[in-house]
């Protein structure tokens, strides 16, 4: 297994950028770049969401009728990009920023990786909903009904485009640096859980208007937990794809495919509430973890032979959390 280029380039740029004596803030960022990224991402994202949508969020305005929900979410999505660009420029200068965008333009990878990126989410989501449809018509995928429209397809495309704002941070900055010290699976678990936690305010906003009679506290808890389970599983698959391709573009397309398929925009997922939504979410989470297990088993011989192919640790400032 080849060493993912992104993490080597991140370490090289950061090592090469140390030309002046850093101040205390720089030393802390260099010692803990990923932690600095997580903190800055949360601060920027949640501050913007609360600034734009806080009044509707806390006054109980349903997300699907709030005039500011979409703007608040788009503003939240800028957090990972802002954090990534600020910290990359601070740590690696213009060369580091150029390298990150070069990985976003890295499109020359095997066609099979585009198939994996674009078709994994639709296949799993459709299989889950077709299976659940056998138990109740509530789970019928809208694409098989008259409700499916060109507007829904355009909405899915639009949702997918926003994922570049996230992946410039999660995969552009955090994952290459975590891979300097951790295997792919551990890296994905760290990022997956924090990625899910970053969605907490969005989960509360959407969940508070979709409980469908289920008591709010347990409903929101179960809603958030299945978000953690499903997003972490999918992040494992995304990290494996990034390791294999070194392409930020392909990973962004994979994220876009998942976002377009799982949001309730009249494509593959019907507009569910209450217990039906929880059932669909938890079954989807289980299905994604089954896919992770299947891929892990298929990689077992390679991983066992190479022991996750860990290279010698780079300087501490480049690889610490």
Explain how this protein is built.
With 321 residues, this protein is mainly alpha-helical. Helix content is 74%, strand content 0%. It contains 13 helices and no strands. It has helices at 5-16, 24-31, 33-59, 69-104, 111-133, 150-161, 163-178, 184-198, 200-207, 216-245, 248-262, 274-306, 316-319.
Task: Describe this protein with a few key phrases.
mainly alpha; single chain; 13 helices; 74% helix; 321 residues
Give a brief rundown of this model.
With 321 residues, this protein is mainly alpha-helical. It is 74% helix and 0% strand. Helix 3 (33-59) packs antiparallel against helix 4 (69-104), helix 5 runs parallel beside helix 11 and helix 7 packs across helix 11 (248-262).
Write the layout of secondary structure elements.
Blueprint: H1 5-16, H2 24-31, H3 33-59, H4 69-104, H5 111-133, H6 150-161, H7 163-178, H8 184-198, H9 200-207, H10 216-245, H11 248-262, H12 274-306, H13 316-319
Helix pairs in contact: 1-4, 1-7, 2-3, 3-4, 3-7, 4-7, 4-11, 5-11, 5-12, 6-11, 7-8, 7-11, 8-10, 9-10, 10-11, 10-12
